[in-house]
Amino acid sequence: MLIFNTAKVPPFELEKTGSQNLASEDLRLKYRYLDLRRPQLQQNIRMRAKAVAAIREYFDGRGFIEIETPILLKSTPEGARDFIVPSRIHTGKFFALPQSPQILKQITMIAGFDKYFQIARCFRDEDLRADRQPEFTQLDMEMSFVNREQVYREMEGMFNHVMKLIGVEFPSEWPRMTHAEAMRRYGSDKPDLRFEMELCDLSEELKDTDFAPFRDTIANGGEVKCIVVKGRSDYSRKQTDELQEYAKRYGAGALAWIKIPVRTASDSDRAPDAGREKNPIAVAPGSDITSSLLKVLGEAKIAELASVAGAEPGDAVLIVAGKRSVVAASLGALRLEVARREDLIDRSSYKPLIVTEFPMFEYDEETDTYVAAHHPFTSPMDEDVELFKTAVNDPAQHHLLGRVRAKAYDAVINGYECAGGSIRIHQKEIQDLNFKALGMTPEKARERFGFFLDALEYGTPPHGGFAAGIERTCMILCGTENIRDVMAFPKTASAQDLMMDSPGVVDPGQLDELGIEVAE
């Protein structure tokens, strides 16, 4: 018998399956080379390789050229913190790792490469979560002389080609939904359409209420909305308290509720009070309908709200009031949490969507300024160009920036933003205006983006494209909600590599060469 090598006893069992049976993730990441032996991770990494190959196959077949862009770039503000690399040769100066190849892929259009794509490595120094890592891979694609519909065709075609790896057939044209509609109906710009439970607006019914918290919220531009949880009028106090605490994570002040009991024969025989307007859900004297708002709103108003929400006997209604952004964030997140708890999501289905007409700017309350919602090179909608110019050039109208829509769009699958893109600004005067809208002086814009502003003056064609997250796409292909399951050597939630014990200290001599001193 020939023995090639000996092996120590592994620190955890490799044959275990199911997340509840696995060793802790930190332990598995420390010994990632052993964890990768597990059949599930082997399958995931192989699926990732197939997905990347399928992407290249699609774009090669469509006449796109793959162009590799640099990793050491200039630091430019694109929405997240840069990873900075000091230069030894140019002491006191720094490179930045690319958050994306955004400017460079636009420059390839100026250079005359009309169809570009790249499997690009990207780096962002930001807080992590289940579907985010400090370094990740994305597909970048750009085309000249295109409109949004032409970009949609390529985005849909690429995903349709990749999803065939798991036998999923998407329609050639995906459903469309504007950003405004998505936020109104689902409280999210990446709605999961595998289940219903849309948000319902109760503001009209409550604008004249005597209950000051609701009345004042609506008067100040806020709203009151709800979701209906079918068949859960039996929620316990503990369960509603848990849901309230969950909603508070997203800014909600409180979570009100209504529970409509299942009708009995005796209930249906009772007549509503004389003079009370009949509702689909009639509340008779002695009815055991319950609500955290019963004392402040009364039975008639509670029944009206339940009716407007479309609730039926046996259902629960969950209500949030506040600023529009808070109501959307908290109810949108609560919708997903309830769906997980109640097992409402059909895990065997795949629902694609293209979300369009994103806002061009977002208001930052901390700095009292408007920031780019996408990135500073996104073109405004043609219908909003004059509004954009007015908002930029007239300080008294600066607040109108919040109403300017962009030619920006996302591809969403099962509640994941799998790709995002836009038609870019190709005219220097519009780009100058956009930098001004973001608070940049001409001098600051020239300092940060001078090379790009110069390039725009040499016959830049209209162009647009998108970027697709390779890891998020593979999460869908592999049926996992953890991005680390589709990466060979991922970081922890605190951006550490436990296997290599990084980040770590470096030799003081290296720091001296770079002219860097670490502050204690």
Task: Tell me about this structure.
This protein has 520 residues and is an alpha+beta fold. It has 17 helices and 17 strands. The chain has 3 domains: 236 residues, BirA Bifunctional Protein, domain 2 (2-Layer Sandwich); 147 residues, GAD-like domain (Gyrase A, domain 2), CATH 3.30.1360; 72 residues, no CATH class. A hairpin with a 7-residue loop joins strand 2 and strand 3. Helix 3 crosses helix 5, helix 3 packs across helix 16 and helix 13 crosses helix 14.
Short description:
This protein is of the alpha+beta class and 520 residues long. Helices cover 34% and strands 17% of the residues.
List the helices and strands and how they pair.
Layout: H1 25-30, H2 32-35, H3 39-61, E1 65-66, E2 84-86, E3 94-96, H4 102-110, E4 115-123, E5 135-144, H5 148-163, E6 176-178, H6 179-186, E7 200-201, H7 203-206, H8 212-219, E8 223-229, H9 237-248, E9 256-259, H10 265-269, E10 290-291, H11 294-309, E11 316-322, H12 324-341, E12 352-356, E13 361-364, E14 369-372, H13 385-393, E15 408-413, E16 416-423, H14 428-437, H15 442-455, E17 463-469, H16 470-478, H17 508-514
Parallel strand pairs: 1-4, 6-12
Antiparallel strand pairs: 2-3, 4-5, 5-17, 7-8, 8-11, 9-10, 9-11, 12-15, 13-14, 15-16, 16-17
Helix pairs in contact: 3-5, 3-16, 9-12, 13-14
